[in-house]
Amino acid sequence: xxxxxxxxxxxxxxxxxxxxxxxxxxxxxxxxxxxxxxxxxxxxxxxxxxxxxxxxxxxxxxxxxxxxxxxxxxxxxxxxxxxxxxxxxxxxxxxxxxxxxxxxxxxxxxxxxxxxxxxxxxxxxxxxxxxxxxxxxxxxxxxxxxxxxxxxxxxxxxxxxxxxxxxxxxx
Length: 171
Prior knowledge:
Elements: E1 2-3, H1 16-19, E2 26-33, E3 39-47, H2 55-89, E4 95-97, E5 103-106, H3 108-114, H4 118-121, H5 126-130, H6 136-148, E6 156-160, E7 166-170
Antiparallel strand pairs: 1-2, 2-3, 4-5, 6-7
């Protein structure tokens, strides 16, 4: 989005950033959208005098926006790699769940104990993978209690592992 003179644009004419300090006149911005399609913000150029951008400047802004996204993704991947490295060195079962109970992290100890690889269980609700159908409602209810920090702090039950055997797990 390019606004050559914000005082002439009906969308911004009454904006306090235009009508008072810092008296923005010119705005050019490119959205920062990740690979999943989520808007993370915008890379913007502001000035207190009206101006136009040359095609090369618009291209440069687009290139900078792409570079910012690459840096953000690189940082996210580095953080993920660091977390998975730490989790894989722990001699304990570690499963990372999102708020819906879907598996988004699964360390090596879990793979060895359950027989499942992370790729086999990724994005599946843990109760659908590890609990018997007749116990899934209970497991989900316990998860909700633990998640909400109301009362229950841990729970013990049997999980069905890949080879079909039951394994007692405290979580």
